């Protein structure tokens, strides 16, 4: 079964660091772009980061730029999110999501077709 | 960043009702828009991409329309399993942005 499994969440103090992992299985991980999306308790979805299949192209939301670093290890079929200088507002369920192409006519669109179950990060003293 | 504004934020409807959710972009995004469904305790699931293309396996009662700045998700006949929260997501540019969500509740 194609799946993504996140890990690494937990309780951390403000200003602390945490590294999330996302393990991919049953698909050719190195061929896919990947994203991190988070959801604060009782709130909506927030896209936070993207990485290309090779790792050469990366984007971040302004809310995490300069504090979070996305990376991947294609040999290990794994995606990572290094989170530094954590704040209370970073408390959320963090999902990794695979991006693929949905094509309509001559144009193709990024779609998030496979999601993990999420890993919870709580930033509190 | 492009802002996505969904309305309403919540609605109550009955089984069999026709339901319409709208999403407005702060600038033109062509048809670079998807709709996702999220049930409590679950990850989001893609319903529609390219504003109107139905993802494989999604029931045909779901449809999407619109282009430019105004988009609509329609459920033609609401089923019990459709009670959930729905989000739009623009894939026109980075940073990607979601709408704030529309919770569809049972009347």
Describe the protein in words:
The complex is a heterodimer of chains A (125) and B (107). Chain A is mainly β and 125 residues long. Chain A is built from no helices and 11 strands. Chain A has strands at residues 3-7, 10-12, 18-25, 33-39, 45-51, 58-60, 68-73, 78-83, 92-104, 107-115, 119-123. In chain A, strands 2, 4, 5, 6, 9, 10 and 11 form a 7-stranded mixed beta sheet that branches. A 4-stranded antiparallel beta sheet of chain A has the order 1-3-8-7, with no helix packed on it. In chain A, a hairpin with a 2-residue loop joins strand 9 and strand 10. Chain A is globular and about 50 Å long. The N and C termini of chain A lie far apart (39 Å). The model of chain A has no long low-confidence stretch (mean pLDDT 96). Chain B is mainly β. Chain B is 0% helix and 50% strand. Chain B has no helices and 11 strands. In chain B, strands 2, 4, 5, 6, 9, 10 and 11 form a 7-stranded mixed beta sheet that branches. A 4-stranded antiparallel beta sheet of chain B has the order 1-3-8-7, with no helix packed on it. Chain B is globular, with a radius of gyration of 13 Å. The mean pLDDT of chain B is 97.
């Amino acid at each position: 079964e194609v799946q993504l499994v996140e890990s690494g969440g937990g309780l951390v103090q403000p200003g602390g660091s945490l590294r999330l992992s996302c393990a991919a299985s049953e698909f050719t991980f190195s061929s896919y772009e990947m994203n991190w999306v988070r959801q604060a308790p009782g709130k909506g979805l927030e896209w936070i980061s993207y990485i290309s299949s090779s790792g050469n192209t990366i984007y971040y939301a302004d809310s995490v730029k300069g504090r979070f670093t996305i990376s991947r290890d294609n040999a290990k079929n794994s995606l990572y999110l290094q989170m530094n200088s954590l704040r209370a507002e970073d408390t959320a369920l963090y999902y990794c999501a695979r991006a693929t192409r949905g094509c309509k006519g001559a144009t193709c669109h990024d779609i998030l077709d496979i999601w993990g179950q999420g890993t919870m990060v709580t930033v509190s003293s | 960043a492009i802002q996505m504004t969904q309305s309403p934020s919540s609605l109550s409807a009955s089984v069999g009702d026709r339901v319409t959710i709208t999403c407005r972009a702060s600038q033109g995004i062509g048809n670079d828009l998807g709709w996702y469904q999220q049930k409590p305790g679950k990850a989001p699931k893609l319903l529609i991409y390219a504003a109107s293309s139905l993802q494989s396996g999604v029931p045909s009662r779901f449809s999407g329309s619109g282009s430019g700045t105004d988009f609509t998700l329609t459920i033609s006949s609401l089923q019990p399993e459709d009670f959930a929260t729905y989000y739009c997501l623009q894939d026109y540019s980075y940073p990607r942005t979601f709408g704030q969500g529309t919770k569809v509740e049972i009347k």
